[in-house]
Write a structure and sequence with these properties.
- This protein is an alpha+beta fold.
- It has 2 domains: 176 residues, Kinesin motor domain (Kinesin, 3-Layer(aba) Sandwich), CATH 3.40.850.10; 169 residues, Myosin VI head, motor domain, U50 subdomain (Four Helix Bundle (Hemerythrin (Met), subunit A), Up-down Bundle), CATH 1.20.120.
- It is built from 14 helices and 12 strands.
- The chain has a two-stranded antiparallel ribbon. A two-stranded antiparallel ribbon has the order 3-4.
- A hairpin with a 2-residue loop joins strand 7 and strand 8.
- The N terminus and C terminus are likely disordered.
- The structure holds adenosine-5'-triphosphate.
- The site of adenosine-5'-triphosphate (ATP) has 18 residues, from helix 4 and strand 6.
- Belongs to the TRAFAC class myosin-kinesin ATPase superfamily. Myosin family.
- One of its GO terms (cellular component) is actin-based cell projection.
- Keywords: Actin-binding, ATP-binding, Motor protein, Myosin, Nucleotide-binding.
- This is Myosin motor domain-containing protein.
Length: 384
């Protein structure tokens, strides 16, 4: 406790304390690199926690414990030798706290506590590093835990677990103002063990951000897969699906962000699908859906005055409807009707009420969202 009324704060700055403000004591000396576990801090309040994290971060130490919780400060650059098989082996079998704080220590602790069920909860704000941390925990498990079955089965399981991430990211991640690879869905990843060995995994994904399929804020993009598809198709394939360059699509160019293919090339993505057992005909179906979503986005409408002062619409671009119908293998009249009128069914008849231009645009977007989210939900719940 210091009785002084003058407190030295930083360098040569001083300030005078007012009456009743003298109950101050010096900050705990955390040394150059802070403490590895926040529970060692004498003062447990926001300022001291942040100060400790800063000291460590400034020294290239991005991980800190708070008891059995690991706090990671995103370095936004690869920290040399921080991960990899050697590091995974170093942490394998060591109890939490035996070595400096690390994500691999969390993986090791969870693995050591088997066979009772374990859960690693990774949370944080957008761009804080959840996706990367999830992949690192999986990399750790794939590196140090044997797969079940024969050597070939083990290799297949490990490869499938690691290939699932880029595939899910292609369909569920997008560039946002905060993160170039932001996950726009929640995921729950389960890894199954038997006798200490990995025998399978399951990813459940939920709450995909559907609005992004049809609209993007300035500087943001649609899901990576669209740009990867258009960047990777050959000329012949483009012709087959009636596709143009990415910047020609309303669903891709609204954010006025660049339309380059970005993260993963289409060939690698197809390779990942193959590894995960997506057949060639299913892959063909996936491209059909993606291409039809793009075609739907380029459909536009003209206002039409109907009898009795009623407003209706007519399609401005038959070609896009025909492409979507062809790719989805449904009659184009059906799409046309559903985008221009509301259908009400009674016992004896069907009533068609014309849509206004805003309603028609909503109907178009709703169809595109239903197609894409249907694809995301049913094709990408891999279970091994
Ligand atoms: N451990 C790390 N080492 C180096 N870079 C990292 C690490 N973790 C994250 N990053 C960098 O930060 C970026 C954002 O991280 P990440 O996508 O994991 O965030 P997130 O929390 O999953 O975000 P969102 O909620 O938007 O999906 C990554 O693309 C990567 O460049």
């Amino acid at each position: 406790m210091l009785p002084a009324t003058q407190w030295r704060v930083a360098r040569n700055q001083t300030f005078t304390l007012g009456p009743g403000e003298g109950n101050l004591r010096s900050r705990q000396d955390l040394g150059k690199t802070g403490v590895e576990d926040m529970t060692q801090l004498e003062d447990l309040h926001e300022a001291s926690l942040l100060w400790n994290l800063k000291l460590r971060y400034d020294n290239g130490l991005i991980y800190t414990y708070a008891g059995s919780i690991l706090i990671a400060v995103n370095p936004y650059k690869m920290v040399a030798d921080a991960y990899g098989i050697e590091m995974a082996k170093t942490y394998s079998g060591k109890p939490l706290g035996a070595l400096p704080p690390h994500l691999f220590a969390i993986g090791s602790a969870a693995h050591a506590a088997l066979p009772s069920s374990q859960v690693v909860v990774i949370s944080g704000e957008s761009g804080s590093g959840k996706t990367e941390s999830t992949k690192l925990v999986m990399q750790y498990l794939a590196a140090v835990v044997p797969g079940g079955g024969s050597a070939v089965q083990q290799a297949v399981i490990t490869e499938q677990i690691l290939e699932a991430a880029p595939l899910l990211e292609a369909f569920g991640n997008a560039r946002t103002s905060r993160n170039d690879n932001s996950s726009r869905f929640g995921k729950y990843l389960e890894v199954f063990f038997k006798s200490g060995a990995i025998i399978g995994a399951k990813i459940t994904q939920y709450l995909l951000e559907k609005s992004r399929i049809v609209t993007q804020a300035p500087g943001e993009r649609n899901y990576h897969v669209f740009y990867e598809l258009l960047g990777g198709l050959s000329e012949a394939e483009r012709t087959k699906y009636g596709l143009l360059e990415a910047d020609k699509y309303f669903y891709l160019n609204q954010g006025a962000s660049d339309c380059s293919p970005g993260r993963v090339d289409w060939i690698s993505l197809q390779g990942a699908m193959q590894v995960l057992g997506v057949s060639e005909s299913e892959r063909e179906g996936i491209v059909n859906v993606l291409a039809s979503v793009l075609h739907l986005g380029n459909i536009y409408f003209h206002r039409r005055q109907l009898r009795h002062g009623q407003e209706g619409v007519e399609i401005g671009s038959e070609a896009e409807i025909k492409w979507a119908a062809h790719l989805l293998q449904i009659p184009s009249e059906g799409i046309l009707r559903s985008l221009t009128s509301r259908i009400t069914e009674t016992r004896s008849e069907r009533l068609y009420t014309p849509l206004s231009i805003d309603q028609a645009l909503d109907a178009r977007d709703a169809l595109a969202k239903a197609l894409y989210s249907g694809l995301f939900n049913c094709r990408f719940s891999p279970t091994w």
